[in-house]
């Protein structure tokens, strides 16, 4: 099987999300949502695997948003098929650019208390990996 047609693997994220949500509800953090972009702190897209780890989505463009009771992966049309094959049932695929699909920023405003938001570029990332 060539690399182009290699089977995409679905990662089961239940335990990963459970552990992240336990940290989100920890009084030290008290987070309503956790945002995991494709880019790292230096805006490089090819070296950071946090979004892939938490969601299972291996495409190069996307943003994962985890709330206390939902998980959504935002990506564009280049990755709709790939994301639908890689995301497990814990995730909602948000197809950016389609009518009625909010940006991840607007989604956050709809589902989370803005005072308790946190970008994953700092904060609980290191503790989550333990």
Automatic annotation (TrEMBL):
Gene3D superfamilies: Creatinase/prolidase N-terminal domain (3.40.350.10). InterPro entries: Creatin/AminoP/Spt16_N, Creatinase_N, X-Pro_aminopeptidase_P. It comes from the Eukaryota. Pfam families: Creatinase_N. Residues 16-101 form the Creatinase N-terminal domain. This is Creatinase N-terminal domain-containing protein.
């Amino acid at each position: 099987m060539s690399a182009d047609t290699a089977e995409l693997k679905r990662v089961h994220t239940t335990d990963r999300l459970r552990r992240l949500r336990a940290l989100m509800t920890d009084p030290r953090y008290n987070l309503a949502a956790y945002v995991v972009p494709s880019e790292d702190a230096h805006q490089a897209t090819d070296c950071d695997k946090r979004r892939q780890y938490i969601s299972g989505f291996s495409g190069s463009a996307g943003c994962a948003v985890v709330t206390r009771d939902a998980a959504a992966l935002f990506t564009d049309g280049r990755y709709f098929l790939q994301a639908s094959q890689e995301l497990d049932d814990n995730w909602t695929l948000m197809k950016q650019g389609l009518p009625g699909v909010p940006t991840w920023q607007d989604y956050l405003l709809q589902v989370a208390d803005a005072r308790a938001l946190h970008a994953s570029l700092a904060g609980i990332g290191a503790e989550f990996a333990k």
